[in-house]
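Good morning,

Attaching, inline, the backbone tokens for the sequence recovery test we're adding to the shared suite. The designed sequence is right after.
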């Protein structure tokens, strides 16, 4: 089946986003991505009744052998475009991000996958950990608390579109039921490779918005970093291994 391909408006490691009339088509890259498309659609459907600014899912279809999710179009530039200008714009957008993230974390999660199980699965399957370190991490992870909050799993300035007053959060494929501190840690790990200054400033903004202890976030660093190794990011491997050994 062929899709009425509009302009390419976004591209990432897992998928491309195209205009699709007055909607958007998130088209997963070639390969066994059917499960990813249906999983993201199911997550968007599950959170639709919550007070969460996310696009409404409209369908899943196959186009030229690739699976895609059709959803409402989120208008506006990514927060990153303003944040990367630095100065007052950076501070303002990071503060808005922190408030938004805390608002998401205030939501009781619907029937999604468990955050800790997702971390355990990735730590177990990455070949980049030696068995001694892997066992230490899995034993430590088993002692970490479970949570019952909605966690996005991929929350960073490129996944927040629009202005500060009416943002939309996209890319919910990794959403889970979990612990907010671990979700903040995930944001830090995702941002720290390219912009450690922004990653640290974002954690500071979240701490200021919520009052949680920095130690709660830091406690998750080895597990989140080790799990990230399973995602195939060679340019981050050395840094992630160092964090996993903390």
């Amino acid at each position: 089946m062929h899709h009425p391909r509009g302009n390419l408006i976004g591209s990432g490691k897992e998928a491309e986003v195209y205009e699709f009339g007055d909607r958007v088509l998130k088209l997963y890259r070639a390969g066994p991505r059917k499960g990813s498309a249906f999983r993201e659609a199911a997550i968007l459907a599950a959170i639709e009744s919550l007070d969460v600014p996310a696009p409404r899912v409209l369908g899943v279809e196959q186009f030229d052998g690739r699976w895609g999710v059709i959803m409402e179009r989120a208008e506006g530039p990514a927060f990153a475009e303003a944040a990367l200008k630095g100065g007052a714009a950076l501070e303002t957008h990071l503060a808005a991000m922190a408030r938004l993230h805390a608002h998401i974390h205030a939501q009781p999660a619907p029937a999604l996958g468990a955050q800790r199980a997702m971390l355990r699965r990735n730590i177990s399957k990455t070949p980049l950990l030696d068995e001694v370190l892997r066992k230490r991490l899995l034993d430590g992870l088993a002692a970490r608390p479970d949570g019952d909050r909605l966690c996005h799993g991929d929350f960073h300035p490129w996944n927040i579109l629009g202005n500060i007053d009416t943002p939309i959060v996209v890319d919910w494929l990794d959403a889970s039921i979990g612990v907010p501190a671990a979700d903040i840690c995930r944001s830090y790990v995702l941002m720290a490779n390219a912009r450690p200054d922004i990653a640290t400033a974002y954690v500071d903004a979240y701490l200021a918005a919520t009052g949680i202890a920095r130690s709660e976030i830091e406690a998750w660093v080895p597990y989140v970093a080790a799990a990230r190794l399973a995602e195939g990011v060679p340019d981050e491997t050395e840094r992630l291994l160092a964090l996993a050994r903390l």
